[in-house]
Amino acid sequence: MSDRTRRAIAVIGGTGPAGTGLALRWARAGETVIIGSRDAARAEQTAEAIRKRAGANAQVSGMDNSAACAASDLLVLTVPFAGQAALLKQLKPAIRSGSVLIDATVPLAASVGGRASRTLGVWQGSAAQQTAELVPKGVTVAAAFQNVSAEVLNGDDDVDCDVIVCSNDPNATQVAMELAAKIAGARAIDGGKLENARIVEQITALLIGLNLRHKGHGGIRITGLPDSAYKMGLVTK
Ligand SMILES: NC(=O)c1ccc[n+]([C@@H]2O[C@H](COP(=O)([O-])OP(=O)(O)OC[C@H]3O[C@@H](n4cnc5c(N)ncnc54)[C@H](OP(=O)(O)O)[C@@H]3O)[C@@H](O)[C@H]2O)c1
User: Fold this and answer.
1) Cys-Cys crosslink for 187: which of 28, 149, 180, 230, Cβ 3.0 to 4.6 Å?
2) Distances 37 to 26, 44, 187 between C-alpha atoms, Å
3) 229 Cα–ligand 1 center, Å
4) Cα(103)–Cα(16) distance, rounded to whole angstroms?
5) Is the CB of 26 under 6 A from ligand 1?
6) What is the pLDDT of residues 100-137, one digit of tens each?
7) HSE (CB half, 13 Å, CA atoms) of 156?
8) In whole angstroms, what is the distance from residue 102 CA to residue 174 CA?
9) Predicted TM-score (pTM) of this structure
10) Domain ranges of the chain
11) Closest protein CA for atom 43 of ligand 1
12) Does ligand 1 have an atom closer than 6 angstroms to the CB of 150?
């Protein structure tokens, strides 16, 4: 067992569809998960719903976002872009030095009232790079999970999508890839530096447009790389 698998995964904004879906998958894989929310009672309600779906042995609890940050040094951020910066500033004192933060945020225009199939320009280059500027020193950031549909994550089928992980820190990349590989059906790929998150985030807007046009829940698969490039998830079906 690696060090990472002994740590709880704190999903900040875990009451929404993206965070809940990721938490459900990790709970099913035997991970200990903390749902974070601005409201502790809402976090506990979501945790209970996940426990019911993931089985009697599921280790899922709920608490407010600050308590979740204080309780774990492995954070997954799943909040709308419009609230990302303010939330990170508020949580800064609670985020533990040495934490790894994995950011799934997509700067969709919808988060400020625009179209879901468009992204906003982000001064730092991407939502994940904005996060990297806002976390305390000593906290490393990886970008991942932006292309995985919450609807698919919240279902029961294997997830037919690759997870491209971008980070400037090799350990954060490895941690995010391990988490992606815990999702049945998914594969993780090292996507290089954090600046590449800008491209991955934009793919989400494209996928949303495709899903609206074709009425589906499309993801992405990267083909043609050597087997060593893919960290395979569990395949259950
Ligand atoms: N939905 C998808 O298919 C999908 C897939 C991949 C990535 N993403 C990205 O993942 C993020 C979350 O997606 P989602 O669909 O789960 O979003 P969401 O439902 O709009 O928001 C997730 C949670 O964030 C919290 N939140 C909402 N507004 C906030 C604010 N202003 N400040 C702080 N917290 C706030 C809420 O939790 P509390 O009210 O309980 O605090 C909410 O339940 C987004 O950036 C999205 O682009 C989404």
Assistant:
1) 230
2) 18, 9, 28
3) 30
4) 14
5) no
6) 999 999 998 887 787 777 889 899 999 999 999 999 99
7) 3
8) 11
9) 0.96
10) 4-232
11) 16
12) yes
